[in-house]
Specification:
Elements: H1 3-7, H2 10-41, H3 46-53, H4 55-72, H5 82-96, H6 102-108, H7 115-143, H8 148-174, H9 177-193, H10 219-225, H11 230-245, H12 253-270, H13 283-314, H14 320-353, H15 355-376, H16 380-397, H17 400-408, H18 414-442, H19 448-464, H20 474-483
Length: 484
């Protein structure tokens, strides 16, 4: 074990954050370039772009849950997370090469249309990212004690990852998206393969109190645990089925039914009393987090996928290259803010006021920024300013929920719970790709995108306020450190 790991020094937290940063860098490339490439280079319309993006969440459902379960129970190459990080990172780097070459791949395979190839490429890339994303986050919980140190681990993860995200969007803004993609191949490969070799993983995963370590979480119980996500799941199955079968539907009553189911199950979950066990874990608490986090991602993913159509409507004088630079510039600012805030602001405030309260307020600020953007997004400056405010909520979204969630579940099953937690990301992503795309394709005013995002984040903020803060004070953290 390296001395920096024994001391839990800032250098170790930096090293620990690099694999997750690699996956974040690959995701930044996907966010910055995928819709832009599909629209400007390959001529896909808004509905087709959404359908291509649906491939990613499908990969997440398959990849993160399965990899999480397997990585909890294997030991390969002196690690349980290490092999998945290395293999997934290598595949992600190779998959990035395919993004600007979809037409070449299509023609070499003798395929006339590119939609199927685009879906295959997006699916391959996102599956590769998802193979690694779960282990890169689970390993932080594996090697840090509960409490402030674990919060520090995830806030450092976001700061380092956010810094590379800033670099990604800077490359796309000041050069172009093609340079971003090809440089990304190098960064993703190096940061995935090298750092895990220097991180010593624990041979066994145990909590201080192992009273729940023998509890089984089978398939049906797992289905019950994700109950707040049933509405998202039902709509995803319905929308994907009619899309694949080519059925045209001109009504929205299925969407309304699924929304009603989602809101009912969310309220049912949020008003339930948390069943805190002696080791501090809580299944109901975990379910509340799923409910709250899902609406965060419904809004955030909709921005990522469809902002190009918002920009095209509000800045019609821009050509395709300039449109791409405005979008990448906006995400550059978003990432810069989200890279700075976790360590200098979110972590100190979370230590003082609690992670849940700080996160809830951050999500509420994001909801407000979305609603303002929907009304004032008719200039580049306005877009950039509101992206800066959105960075507050984004900084919290990709750092604090992991620390909050990891306190609620048994560490011996961290990979599994990380996979289930990821369903609160990928199922809303599917709804965004299949449902929000359908909605925006039929409304003339694309400003409605950010009205929808604002309402979604407002619901999320209200839900987050119902999550109970875990009681992990300094004395408890010191005791865990001693046992480690």
């Amino acid at each position: 074990m390296l001395a920096i790991q024994q001391r839990l020094s800032n250098g170790f937290y930096t090293l620990l954050s690099l694999p997750s940063s690699a996956m974040g860098f690959a995701l930044s490339i996907q966010i910055a370039a995928l819709s832009w490439l599909l629209t400007t280079q390959y001529g896909l319309d808004i509905h087709e772009v959404g359908f291509v993006w649906a491939a990613g969440p499908l990969a997440g459902i398959i990849g993160q849950v399965i990899v999480g379960i397997i990585s909890d129970n294997v030991w390969i190459w002196n690690g349980r997370r290490r092999p998945f990080i290395i293999v997934g990172g290598t595949l992600a780097a190779l998959s990035l090469l395919a993004l600007p070459n979809i037409d070449v791949i299509s023609s070499s395979m003798g395929i006339n249309g590119i939609l199927g190839v685009a879906i295959a490429v997006a699916l391959t890339l996102d599956l590769s990212i998802n193979i690694s994303f779960n282990p890169t986050r689970a390993i932080i919980a594996d090697v840090t004690p509960k409490g402030n140190e674990r919060t520090k681990g995830y806030t450092w993860m976001q700061t380092i990852s956010g810094s590379f995200g800033v670099l990604a969007y800077a490359i796309g803004t000041f050069w172009d998206n093609y340079a971003l993609i090809y440089l990304g191949v190098i960064f993703v490969f190096l940061m995935s393969v090298l750092p895990p070799l220097f991180i010593k993983e624990p041979r066994s995963l145990t909590e201080v109190d192992t009273s729940s370590s023998q509890e089984k979480l089978g398939f049906w119980r797992g289905i019950m645990v994700i109950q707040p996500l049933w509405g998202f799941l039902l709509y995803s199955i319905y929308a994907m089925s009619i899309e694949l079968m080519g059925i045209k539907v001109n009504h929205y009553w299925i969407e309304g039914l699924c929304l009603a189911i989602t809101l009912f199950l969310m309220i049912k979950t949020l008003i339930a009393k948390e069943d805190v066990k002696p080791d501090g874990t809580s299944e109901v608490g975990f379910m509340k987090i799923l409910a709250a986090h899902s609406f965060t991602w419904l809004g955030v993913q909709s921005m990522f996928v469809y902002i190009i159509f918002f920009v095209q409507q509000n800045l019609p004088n821009l050509d395709s290259t300039e449109t791409g630079r405005v979008i990448t510039g906006g995400f550059f600012i978003l990432s810069a803010i989200s890279a700075i805030l976790p360590i200098i602001l979110l972590q100190p405030l979370a230590n003082r006021w609690g992670r849940v309260k700080v996160h809830s307020i951050s999500i509420a600020s994001m909801a407000l920024a979305y609603l303002v953007l929907s009304q004032l997004g008719n200039s580049e400056i306005a877009i950039y300013i509101m992206m800066a405010f959105l960075g507050i909520g984004w900084a919290a979204t990709i750092s604090l929920p992991f620390a909050i969630m990891s306190q609620k579940v048994n560490a011996a099953k961290m990979g599994l719970y990380m996979g289930l937690f990821n369903l609160s990301v990928v199922l809303p992503q599917l709804v965004s790709s299949l449902g929000v795309g359908k909605f925006l394709n039929q409304v003339e005013d694309k400003n409605m995108l950010f009205v929808l995002c604002g309402v979604s984040l407002a619901i999320s903020a209200v839900a987050w306020f119902s999550v109970k803060e875990s009681q992990d004070n300094t004395m408890q953290t010191e005791q865990i450190n001693t046992n480690h």
